[in-house]
TrEMBL record:
Enzyme class: ligase
Recorded superkingdom: Bacteria
Protein name (Swiss-Prot/TrEMBL): Glutamyl-tRNA(Gln) amidotransferase subunit A
Keywords recorded for this protein, A-Z: ATP-binding, Ligase, Nucleotide-binding, Protein biosynthesis, Transferase
Organism: Actinomadura harenae
Subunit structure: Heterotrimer of A, B and C subunits.
Amino acid sequence: MSELTGKGAAELGELIASGETSAVEVATAHLDRIRAVDAEVHAFLHVDREGVLAQARSIDERRAAGEELGPLAGVPVAHKDVFTTKDMPTTAGSKILEGWRPPYDATVTARLRAAGMVILGKTNMDEFAMGSSTENSAFGPSRNPWDLTRIPGGSSGGSSAAVAAHEAPLGTGTDTGGSIRQPAAVTGLVGMKPTYGGASRYGMIAFASSLDTPGPFARNVLDAALMQAAFSGHDPMDSTSIDAPVPPVVEAARRADVAGLRVGVVKEFAGEGYQPGVLNRFNETVELLESLGAKVVEVSCPHFTYAMPAYYLIAPSECSSNLARFDAMRFGLRVGDDGVHSAEEVMALTRAEGFGAEVKRRIMLGTYALSSGYYDAYYGKAQQVRTLIMRDFEAAFEQVDVLISPTTPTTAFPIGERADDPMAMYLADLCTIPANLSGNPAISVPCGLADEDGLPVGVQIMAPVLADDRVYRVGAALEKALEERWGGPLLAKAPKLEAGE
């Protein structure tokens, strides 16, 4: 592995800015790493080597011309294949969009480019972001670099695998029910779900519009903060975008101090169904926060236990509405267009072939929940539960500054283990869903390795809406203390992928 691929984003940005290395050299090192290991990891669906080098050369030329560039200029990023890119295919992990080249960039894509970041390619994902393992991708699963027989989480598993395998220092993801935080936890990364509306959804292929949130993957807290700052902010193209200043996340990540902060341990997220090694690392993290000067108390959020059933009515309902646009008439796959079949038959044939089993399952659940006679009983009731969960958060934050819990109940499970058991798969997002229903910011930070299998465990930190800086402050303090205890980053303990080296 190249020395450059082992460095974080902030460090790479400084090296490029100082002239100690170039954007082309950094891009080449990461492209070589992808070529060496991605046949095993399968993080990427599309990489355009010449296009990547052209992006990097442009950064070097702009810097040589004296242009003032940002802290991440020249730094590579692995981009989830749910964001539209006019120079690369965008599939959302689905056969129904295979080969589709959008005519425009998503706002997140455009802002990455404006920050001077080099987009390495598009990463694998559960189809239309529906899943917790990346096994629902129409193009095959990605694999966890810690153990190639295990999942890297989902739906943003391609990005988490790429960053954990040192194929990229940063990755983009989307979080609808935990799809950044859960992959980050099981691959030993930092993964952040910003406040809903803090970053634009324009050009991000929709799963559930009131829940979907773009966010960063990184190997440390500061890198995640720098990337969030780069692509966040108001966007008039997104009606749900918040017209407010971006919270001072970078300053908070550099502060790394919890002295005097009130930390609430969510009572409902530490019971049965949790892997013992996960709970052990979480309890040690709680003790560490106390030793750093935080005041830790137990907080009850009673309606959090209803978050999962509410989510699996709201999200499929919105998915049923959003995915109606894939009708074989305007773009994407078209099956049966032979002059014999009617438009309705072409639509049915295309959807039958183009959508995978999990997407079909959620469309059917959502369509049923929205149907006449059932809307109030299912979708309406779920929205009422959502309101109660928001009130739980509000009541909790009257007592404490942040809430913490395990990020996910278990470490990475073997590929195929839960493929035929949707309920077991859904439980991976048990702790992460409430923050999506309420819109609160939440981060997952590595907190150690489980006793049973030596795989990464994550701790989740949640804060009030638009207090994203608060989770970075706590996350950075934990990261600093834990690295002192471990003698370096957790990811340094990962088995090295030696393929092609």
